[in-house]
Write a structure and sequence with these properties.
alpha+beta, two-stranded antiparallel ribbon, 2 helices
Length: about 90
């Protein structure tokens, strides 16, 4: 693991990561998300903005997982159809 320093919403954090480049990218994306949220919710402090960002990211993750499961089911169905066609 390597130590990497990132800036999130104007605050600096030192983190440990196996992939510092990816960690920096995630920090930049999170910082951008917090900046966008702050433009809408100026009255929220840093902790509340982080919580809101977490909820948004979790919602996006849940949607992506649902879509992934749907696509897996569809792929299995297509593979079964191909197997039937190939066995004829």
């Amino acid at each position: 693991m390597q130590s990497v320093e990132v800036e999130i919403f104007g605050r600096r954090f030192r983190l440990r990561s196996d992939n510092p480049t990816r960690t920096e990218q995630i920090a930049a994306e999170l910082s951008q998300q917090l900046t966008e949220l702050y433009e809408t919710y100026e009255h929220l402090d840093f902790a509340k903005l982080l919580l809101l960002a977490c909820f948004q990211r979790e919602e996006n993750l849940q949607k992506a997982l649902e879509e992934n499961n749907t696509l897996k089911s569809e792929l299995n169905r297509v593979n079964q159809m191909i197997e039937k066609i190939m066995s004829v």
